[in-house]
Amino acid sequence: MNLLALKSIFQRKKSHIVLGIVGEINAGKTTLANRMGMDLANQTIGNVSEVPHETREIAKLENCILDANGHGRLNLTIVDTPGIANAVDYRVFMERYGMTKAESIQRAKEATMGVIKAIEALEMIDVAIVVVDSARPPFNQVNWMVIGSLRSKNIPIIVCANKVDLPDADPQLVLDTFRDQVAAVIPISALYGDNMDQLYNLIGSLV
Ligand SMILES: Nc1nc2c(ncn2[C@@H]2O[C@H](COP(=O)(O)OP(=O)(O)OP(=O)(O)O)[C@@H](O)[C@H]2O)c(=O)[nH]1
Ligand SMILES: [Mg+2]
Fold it and tell me: Domain 3-86+115-206's class?
């Protein structure tokens, strides 16, 4: 271990870091949580689905060991959170995803509670990754509300401009939109693992 890495360990206030993964529905939060879980602890965290509000409970994975190049060894607790939405319409689950009315109403109730749980989870995190789908326009109330809440709590924010593998992805627009608000914007593909090293090094530098 070099001197710089040792120095950073002793200067760091905390070696156990709670890393929250937050953001809009379907942005790829659980895909990212699972990739990080596999990379750092050989475990996945939750189910991924194209149906929105797949994650409706907070899920944690402890003891994810990150050797951040030049920034020492970190013990991360990764927290995957339910997707945040302005409104949940149960009919979407029936019309678009073929669920029964009863299933759809149940999912919508749980999804609404999930939004509240995600907002409550902001209280317990040391570093936040806000996942943004870079194939969708980034200007929306959810992204701004999440980033604004985190900023007001002085929590360091990394925006991951996800899904850069898609042909209509525009990570530059995500960067231009949020660069003044956050510590960094990193283009990634949680699905294929693009740029994960950059993300890991950055986490080490922020805590
Ligand atoms: N092409 C592409 N698809 C992705 C990527 N990351 C996630 N997806 C897809 O996006 C959809 C939603 O992924 P999830 O990881 O469940 O998204 P989430 O943000 O956890 O969703 P909620 O739990 O509903 O809020 C799934 O179909 C994923 O396969 C990516 O980097 N590239
Ligand atoms: Mg999820």
Answer: alpha beta
